[in-house]
Amino acid sequence: MNRRKVTTIQQETGTMTDKREESPSYKRVLLKVSGEALMGKGSGGVDPEMVDMVAADIAAVVASGVQVCLVVGGGNIFRGLSAAARGMDRAQGDYAGMLATIINALMLQNGLERQGLETRVMTAIQMAAIAEPYIRRRAVRHMEKGRVVIFAAGTGNPFFTTDTAAALRANEMECDALFKGTQVDGIYSDDPRRNPDAVRYDQLTYMDVLARQLNVMDAAAISLARENKLPIVVFNMHAPGAFATVVRGEGRFTRVIEAG
C-alpha cells in the first residue's frame, strides 16, 4: 500500500508556498546523503565528526518511530563525470564512483552502529565480503525490523547518478518522502553562496524544478519522483539535528510535490 500523503499548494507572486500540516506524519523515509556532506569543512575525504553528527541525527529520527533508509554519494572521494571531462572513459569513471559510495556507506554504518542502531549495507554491485547484495524484498524486511538500510553503489549502472538511485530506492521502498541533505536550506533560484540575490522557494512542483533548471537533483531523478508522486524535501543537513527537525515539519526547507 502506498503511504504517501496528499498535500496542497498555493501560488503567490510567482513563488510557491504551502499549506503545511502542523505535524507531518512519516512512517518510512529515504535520506540522500551526498559525499560532499561527509567532508564537513574539509576539501576531500571523510570527516569523522560529520559522520558522527549525521549518525546522531538519523538515530533521533529512528527513535521517533520513523523507518529510515539511506542512499549515499561518493563525490568526496571520486566523481566519474569529472574524470570523464578529463578524458577518462565515462563508464569506467562511474564504476569507480560507485566504489567510492561503498566506502562512504561503510563509514556511515560504523557511525550509526556507534549510536546503537542495527544497520545493513546493501550494494547494487555484489561485494559479499562487506555488504549484502541489493534485493528489494530483503531490504523491506530489514526496515520492517527497525534496521537502517544504507544503499550503496548507486543503481549499479553507469550514466546514472546517486540522485537517480535515491529516487529509485525511495520508490521501491514505498517511502513517504525523499529527503535530500544539501549545503543550503532549500532550493534557490541560483546558488545563494555566490549570488546574494538568489530567491529561496518554500515549495515547488516537479515541473517548476525542471522548467527553471533548478539543479538540486538531476532531471531523471525529478521525473522518476514526479511519475510516482514522491515528495522531495531539500534541507541543509550541516546543522546538528537538522534532519530530525525537518522530519517534524519544522525549520527551513523546500518541498517539491505535484501541482494541486
From TrEMBL:
Please name the pathway.
Pyrimidine metabolism; CTP biosynthesis via de novo pathway; UDP from UMP (UMPK route): step 1/1
Q: State if Cytoplasm is listed as a keyword.
A: yes
Q: Where does it live in the cell?
A: Cytoplasm
Q: Where along this sequence does the record place binding of ATP? A: K32, V33, S34, G35, G75, R79, T182, Q183, Y188, D191
Tell me what reaction this enzyme catalyses.
UMP + ATP = UDP + ADP
Q: Which GO terms describe its molecular function?
A: kinase activity
User: Aspartate/glutamate/uridylate kinase domain spans which residues?
Assistant: 27-236
Q: Does the keyword Protein biosynthesis apply?
A: no
Q: What is its main location?
A: cytoplasm
The annotated modulation of its activity is: Inhibited by UTP.
Bias regions of kind Polar residues — which residues?
Answer: 7-16
Q: Per its UniProt record, what Pfam families does this chain match?
A: AA_kinase (PF00696)
Q: What is its EC number?
A: 2.7.4.22
Name the InterPro entries for this protein: AceGlu_kinase-like_sf (IPR036393), Asp/Glu/Uridylate_kinase (IPR001048), Uridylate_kinase (IPR011817), Uridylate_kinase_bac (IPR015963)
The UniProt keywords, alphabetically, are: ATP-binding, Cytoplasm, Kinase, Nucleotide-binding, Pyrimidine biosynthesis, Transferase
Transmembrane regions: none
| Record-stated family | Belongs to the UMP kinase family.
User: Subunit structure of this entry?
Assistant: Homohexamer.
Which protein is depicted? Uridylate kinase
The scientific name of the source species is Gluconobacter thailandicus NBRC 3257
Instruction: Give the gene that encodes this protein.
Output: pyrH
